[in-house]
Amino acid sequence: MDVNALAVIPPTPDEPAMKTTVDYVSKRDQTMTALERSVILAPFTALQSQKTTPPLWLRRLFIVSNNNCTTEHKRRRSDRGELTPSVGGVYGCTFGNIVDFCKPNNAKRSVVAKRISKFIEYILRLSRQLSGLDAPYLSMGLDGSRVSRTQRKVIKELARTKLDSKYGYTSTAVGATAAIITSIWMLLTPQNAEDIMKSDTLAHALASAESALHNWPVAASDVPQTHESALDAECRALHRAIKSAEIGANLASDHNKSPYEIVMSQLHFALLGAFPPRKLQEDSQSDTLDMIDNLALFAHINMANNRKFISLMNVEDSNCAISSLERREQLSSSCSESSWNSMSSSYSYSSSFSLCGSDE
Question: Where along the chain do its domains lie?
């Protein structure tokens, strides 16, 4: 997927930034919340090990710092024990979990992490065009927000992930919609595209996440209102992505595209539908879905010229997608910043975003 040619996004007027709300949450509640999880994607390609590759876990993650705010508030005590500050919640996956899930056999974890970071940085760029009440919650799952120290200690998949911090923090939170799209994009090759297309892996993963959130088990006794709003925003993004992916697949099929191009089209449309340059909130969801159904949201896409939005990711002669990643690693050896935008020169945009947020 050529991230430089995906979409021409019209600018939207800047809205006043939402005031960051700091919630005080007990360590017990944060620990109990670690029990709230659901598998949204199991290993699905020969690139992954059926024995050692972990599933992609959907979790409710307490955020202690993000790109806009760091919790400098002191801890408090109550009858529930010590309370720690949190600036919000993300329903999604940890960066470390995504790296391990997407890591092909015998591949370097650092190379995979850098490639994932590049793609999430593109999604972050899309999210900057969002407005409405859902925008801050969706952006928190893209902007390098960090999971609380209490949760990090009990989230099992983080214990197995070893990654040099210059390639990213394993405890960074990534929203469910972005995590699913990124994972399938990472593992897609011309060789496995037909299987992914026939099994409709993307649609099933998105639907699984949406269903899990609609029936989310609440283990903690006190759920902050910001977490409920974050859950609703992620559900709406998943629903838009599901409808958009179906349209992308149908349009690509109508133009006799290859299975690889069809899946890439699904991913592309799912991204544009989940993070459209519109006002996103509960009372505008139906209008946005209408724009997806009547293709108004995708009017700028020329399906006949697939080179406008599809790239074969430089996978020429390999049976393993990581070979192209290793070539990109060599080309981008000069990149040393520990951020989503530690990317090769093929990416024309830049960002001040960094994964190196403050710790709890």
Answer: 23-321
